[in-house]
Design goal:
This protein is an all-alpha fold. Helix content is 57%, strand content 0%. The chain is built from 7 helices and no strands.
């Protein structure tokens, strides 16, 4: 049984990341893209690795919505300061920060593990979690380089055209059930 397990896991065949964790400064456009729009770069990495089977645009949208909700908490607590004491508002703001931070770190750890799996890179979940928590921008830069996004880093919110369906090429045909389509209304 041990021999079978040894055949499945061969550490000598696993790779390392192409770039180091702090080598993100060697590629200034990539570093700038990650610092300016982390949700877009995160979504592009998720898209390239087919993370959880969800398209990258949805991941980008999720992170943007989380940022808006978090910013909204801060604004709402200032507006409703007359109803809520400052201490309570601060505590609610801290809870919102912790939730957004924890979700971001958890998803980034999972994405980093996915990149490692797809690219056959050695590592473990503990290292992924620590890197995601304490070096988030550098981890996103490293993952971007690994999946090949370092070449076109300036196209921050660009997703591959092959996933975009041109509506004019394939018009939808809506017909009521159990009825044959009328040949005159079919667009050719």
């Amino acid at each position: 049984m041990d021999n079978c397990h040894e055949k499945l896991i061969k550490p000598d065949e696993q790779n390392e990341f192409k770039t180091g964790l702090c080598s993100c400064f060697n590629n200034v456009p990539l570093c700038f893209a990650v610092l300016c729009c982390k949700p877009c770069m995160w979504g592009r990495i998720a898209h390239k690795t087919k993370f959880m089977g969800i398209k990258g645009q949805y991941w980008t949208s999720l992170f943007v919505v989380m940022a808006i909700i978090y910013a909204g908490f801060d604004v709402n607590f200032r507006v409703y300061n007359r109803v809520i004491t400052e201490s309570t508002a601060f505590h609610l703001w801290c809870i919102a920060f912790i939730v957004v931070f924890a979700v971001t770190i958890f998803l980034t750890r999972l994405l980093r593990a996915r990149v490692r799996k797809v690219q056959n890179i050695s590592g473990n979940w503990c290292n992924d979690g620590l890197v995601s928590a304490f070096c988030f921008p550098c981890a996103v830069c490293q993952m971007s380089s690994e999946v090949g996004l370092d070449r076109d880093a300036c196209n921050v919110c660009y997703f591959p055209e092959s996933d975009i369906v041109n509506v004019h090429e394939h018009p939808p045909a809506y017909f009521p059930r159990n009825q044959d389509p009328d040949p005159e209304i079919i667009i050719k």
